User: Fold this.
Amino acid sequence: METPIIELQDIRKSFGPVEVLKGVNMTVYPGKVTALVGDNGAGKSTLIKGLSGAQPYDSGDVSFESSPITLAHPKDASQHGIEVVYQDLSLCENLDIVQNMFLGREEVHQSMLNQPEMEKHAAATLQSLSVRTMKSVRQKVSSLSGGQRQTVAIARAVLQKAKVVILDEPTAALGVAQTEQVLALVRRLADAGVGVIIISHNLADVFEVADYINVLYLGAMVAQLKTSETNYNEVVAYITGIKGDTSAAEEVEEEEVVS
Amino acid sequence: MTTPVERSTNPPTKTAAQTVGGAPAPHQIATGHEGTVRDQIDTYVQRIRGGEMGMLPALAGLIIIGLVFWIATPFFFTKTNIANLMTQTAALMMLAVALTFVIILAEIDLSAGVTGGLGMAIFILLTNVAHWNWIAALLVAFIVGATIGTFIGFMVARIGVPSFVITLALFLGLQGVILVLLGNAGAYRIEAPAVTAIMNKSMPVWAGWLMLAIVVAISLFTGLYDRSRRVASGMHVRPMSLLWARVIAWAVGGGFVVLLLSLNRSTSVIPIRGVPIVVPIALAILWVGTMMLDRTRFGLHLYAVGGNPEAARRAGINVARLRMVAFVLCSTLAVVSGLFTASQVGTVESSAGRDIVLSGVAAAVVGGVSLFGGRGRLAQAAVGALLISMITNGLGLLGLSAGITLAITGAVLALAATVDALSRRRSGATALTRG
Assistant:
């Protein structure tokens, strides 16, 4: 087995008296798609916000490419090449594709925006992802479809040379064809060597694209499964808590990781 | 589809350009710079139909209203009146430009007018009572403006008071401060001739032509510079003829106005000719501001925060600092607007700047600056100001009462806001940003 790009150990996070993450372990491998599933309130978003640095964990160890790191600020995450593509899409609709892809990290030339270079890199990035649905990189995002917007958001992460891309419900608002497009893009992203974490409620999508499926149940990681070695019913059983005792969660997953 | 023909000066990126079903043209994502003049025009028409109308409605309004007044009163398109119109517009235009910086952020500054008034009140006290040099006094006035802007920015960005409320409070409060400073007695006369000259004197005729030459040269050289940068990066460039068209438009349009203003427009024996001094000042401010908005990270981030503050924050933009800077710019430029007003009337009154602010907002909106934030350019605010001044000026010439002028201005504003809302709906821009 390859060395993991991210390893989380005993991650804990509380909001006041509410313990949202109760000692979560997780591993993410480069070039693989790791799905994170779980019912509402299982702690998926909290786990991701910690990884993005937006909401640091209370305790626990994060190692990145086998060395321990701290994620106290979004800048820490982006320095290590961890990029999050949020569910509600962090795009400015009044700006065009290039402006969105470079937002906050614009290239400048003599303190003026370097438009031609940014256009060039944006177009090259979209082309490297085999994106063929957009007419111009100067299109306003407001004129794009949901799938195209998702593509821009993912391309933005790729442009920043992300090593880990976290996708929060990337297909939630999309139709069938657009979902297929985005899932294909996710696959290409992983094939390019990026470690991909995908959060989804849609198990069909998860089974289609993920290499590993991790299940959170009430703040504990109850299962870390290989997609090829599990099935729909088993995953549902873990999600709903029928299978996998919460108290014994930590021990269970230790064994499964080894397998 | 009007997909432009590829004239591939693009570098050969490893081709993701699979030919779908053996279609001949390899797919490349365009940049909007490809193709012939024809293609460019097609793209432009498409953008307009998609709801990105920019200043077109305002320009159309300008032409229609101009024609109406031309027919209604022959005096409207005389040399004298055009010069009048320019000076009458200057203060309103500067205020609309100032407000645009905060309106882009979907904020508002209701105190901009009285901020200008306070700046001038302090200026007049320093020059007339303390006998300061007028330049030093003006500098202090600008610092006062910047300080007020910093205060508003702090209250909005750090404390979280809605800008509408805090600037309304300042609108009332600063009026009081001006009253206390100047007393009820009324007006102070401006004694620095250089200050009154801004609005009431004209440049020599040759200086007007020099100004035009500089404007045309800037238009040409920025165009050529951008082009050379694109070529250096190996990107497509627009046809050269479009650049020439733009330069010629500036030269002809500007040449017409300068020519008109270079002729004697006096009705008495002392000739008056030349471009009013305020014109190059306003143009310079407009140009610098436009450069900032269009070509710097600051400008781009301003639009980003106006469009989706959360996305901007996630992208690592310091939203609070940006808001502060926008309010500082607005209040400082508001003092420039106050200076123009004071220069025009030659006095500073205790009611300075009280009435102009809503006209300033109206001018920006009429020009196409969106109150929802994220859309609008300084030139649009300027055109909007010109439109509103034209209405006031033309109706005044027709001898209509102030009441009717106000009613018509209001109707135009309502119309402009409707156009804005409809075009936003068209471009679907309301969907996600205002969650």
Notes: Residues 27 and 256 of chain B are 46 Å apart (CA to CA). The longest helix of chain B spans residues 205-232. Strands of chain B lie at 188-189, 347-348. Chain B is about 70% helix and 0% strand.
